[in-house]
Amino acid sequence: MGVVFIQQNIDMKKFLWVIGGVLMLWGIPLSGQQSVAPEIPESAVRMTKVSGQVVDENTGDGIPLATISVTGLGWGTVCDMKGYFKVEVPVNQPAELTVRSVGYETKTLVLESDVTGNLVVRLKKSLLNLDEVTVTGTRTEKTVAETPVMTRIVPSEVLQRNDFESMIDVLEYNIPGLRFNTDPRGNNIQVQGLENSYILILVDGERLSTTPGGPIDFDRLTTANIKKIEVLKGAASALYGSSAMGMVINIITDIPKRPLEGWAKVRYGKWIRKYKYDTKALVRYIENSRCDVVHIHGFMSPGAVQAINAAYGLNKKIVYSPHFHPFRYLRHPMKGKLWFHLFLKPVLFKVDTIVTINNEDTRFFGKYHPNVKKIPHWSTTDTNVLDEVEKQDNMVLFIGRNDTNKGIEHLYTLSDNCQVHCVCKGTVKRDDFILHQNLGDAELACLYRQASVVVVPSRYEAFSLVALEALQHHTPVVISERVRIGDYLKGDKGYRVFNYHDYEGFKDAVSELMMSKDTVNYNQLLAPFDKEKIREEYCRIYNC
Questions:
Q1: String of DSSP letters for 203-243
Q2: The pTM is what?
Q3: C-beta of residue 186 within 8 angstroms of C-beta of residue 215
Q4: Domain around 523
Q5: How confident is the model at residue 220 (pLDDT cuts 50, 70, 90)?
Q6: Does residue 544 lie within any of the structural domains?
């Protein structure tokens, strides 16, 4: 990257105090009550005093320490701290005044002979080519030239001039090589082969994502109040740790210059960790967001209940996604029942709409609330990131946690003829399994396309994004009857459903799909998950 010159308004307050001190050292008065003029004999020129105020053209505020000079006569004056001045001009003849102030365009005006007072001089702000002050380079204020790493500044003028609709548009336009892949949890970033784990996103110096390397939801940010964006390309690990090996993006906010539009959501997970169930802090967080709608997620979470109460007290519209697990599938069913009936159920009347993602959740919450909407998840997986990949015979793909909740023990029953690939952490019990960890989006997409079948044998899944992403990559799936994406799948091609406890049924389903030569209409299978239709449903709920 070359040197970037930035036009930026200077810090007027600090600069004017400096100028004032210098003028005082020179003996130039700071009040308009006196003027700087050579001694001129009274016989030479008769003088009169002209008074007025120098003000900002936009705000009408007085400009302190603005200078006024009388053209051709060699004297002038300096305004006081409120912009007021008095200056002597010749009597009965026009006088030309030149008004200057740092950060403003110079203005010249001609006074008629009869003008003596109440003169208002309006100056227009000017942009000067000065060094931009940055905070990310060293975590202390430095100029761009002094920062130890290459820093680029994207000023608010650039952002306003292009009128970007989203933060993703801002970053893609101004940072070459930056790529985004989105999913319901947020946005994944890639730059120069490095992913989320090595790209640090800050807002006013604070981490945007509370989970290092996790997805980032840029929908929480608005382009209306960005003051500037500082971009540090290259390794900044010495300053920020290993999460900044690829890039640091610091989004610096300001008071919005235009009204906020759209909707905002509160994620309880963020403030739980930050405020430790501080209700007052949560209330301030919702108030400061200036949102109309608060969308709350969570089931057995004190934060969800607290957020409902806080939003209700602020008279906000509340949308609640419970992420419910039926009590019989919980490790402690009685604990789940007590939590629901003692804490969650009593606050459901405060919720405007409950959004569920499967039939069972819809039936359950329909007993306790009059307005329940079933809306599936969607995935924005980019299926065009790769060229066509050849299917591998007998390749079985598993993606998930390495535990019994995800039903990984089902994979151990598969025959040696199956080439099993597992994307999970830890170790597996069979040496012939191929283990993958820390994959990028492109690598994961390649596995999806290579697999003969993707398996989701979970003890319970309220939906299953893994199954949805597999279908998007035109790979058939085997799911247990407890994986609720099955509520949306129609027909008998492209998927198989087995009973969770039936290990032989699982093996038969895998074998059948691997050997199947059926032509699958994936567009038909994916029709219920059309993101535009889902977006419209949410817009109706939010009333936006």
A1: ETTEES-SSTTS-B-GGG--GGGEEEEEEEES--HHHH-GG
A2: 0.52
A3: yes
A4: 395-529
A5: low
A6: no
